[in-house]
Amino acid sequence: KVRRATEHGPTARPKPVPSPPRRTRHEMPTATQAALPLLTLLAVTNAHPHPVESEESCTCEPGAKAFESYHIHVLFYPEDTSGGGFSNNPHNSKNARALRTAFMDRFNVTTCDEKPPIFNLTTLCAFAVDATGAGYPINAAPFVAPNWAVFLPVDRYHDVVPWMMANRGELDFLVHPNSCGFTCSPQDHLKWSIWGGNKWPVRFEL
């Protein structure tokens, strides 16, 4: 008869003792692994711009809150490079550049620091332009034509806007409030704005 080997028999093989898992150099400590999802979330969050503080409670209802500031946009025709004789039009970039220079000299303003959001500036300033006098990118929404722009604090409205109206020549400009960051931009540009000169199309819809 063949005698079967039992667990305690003389021919039974000893059970192998499992060894602890070896950590390779590519594995991270448990604490780091636990923190990784949080670190990833923070990185993604910081990669996207946060809304300005005022946007957290936006309603866009007329009169719900006071206007925080204003922007002025002076619109003009693109630079004429065709040689077709349109460069002498009074809405040309040469006149727009001249008005910008006169504005900056009159109010002793400098170029805006655009690192903060464009609604969170605090002093009168002019946004940067290219060689043609246009802010960049040119024809950026919501505008359909080149323009140069100004950040206007509420307490400077009374002296800046009348000067612009008196010195604009044939150029047209838009003054719109900043009521709640980007959230209420359609209302700011279409419902609560004023024009000096002729009204131009603005690519917003309500």
TrEMBL record:
Region annotation Disordered: where it falls in the sequence: 1-29
Protein name: Uncharacterized protein
InterPro entries from the UniProt entry: DOPA-like_sf, DOPA_dioxygen
SUPFAM superfamilies documented for this protein: DOPA-like
Organism expressing this protein natively: Coccolithus braarudii
Organism domain of life: Eukaryota
Pfam families: DOPA_dioxygen
